[in-house]
Amino acid sequence: MGDHVHVRLSQGLSVSADGELIEHSRCRCGATFTKVFEADGGEPERRPGS
């Protein structure tokens, strides 16, 4: 029998009270994962020409 490799399936995004972006994902085996992207407190990025 082979080794299991987690395949992370996106379950959505949310924003914490501190402004951090939180990515939620899970594997078909039932394992869940959370990745937090910290806000740097700078100005929002603007698209060129906006």
Q: What do you see in this structure?
A:
With 50 residues, the protein is mostly beta strands. It has one domain (1-39). 0% of the residues lie in helices and 38% in strands. It is built from no helices and three strands. It has a three-stranded antiparallel β-sheet, with no helix packed on it. A hairpin with a 5-residue loop joins strand 2 (21-26) and strand 3 (32-37). The N and C termini lie far apart (55 Å). The mean pLDDT is 87.
The parts where pLDDT drops under 50 for at least 5 residues are: none
Overall SS class: mainly beta
Oligomer: single chain
Query: How many discrete domains?
Result: 1
Mean pLDDT: 87
Roughly what fraction of the amino acids lie in strands?
35-45%
Question: What's the number of extended β-strand segments?
Answer: 3
What level of helicity do the residues show? under 10%
Main sheet: which strands, in order across?
1-2-3
SSE pattern: EEE
Most strands sheet: 3 strands, antiparallel
Q: What is the tally of helical segments? A: 0
N-to-C CA distance: 55 Å
Radius of gyration: 16 Å
Tell me, briefly, the overall form: elongated
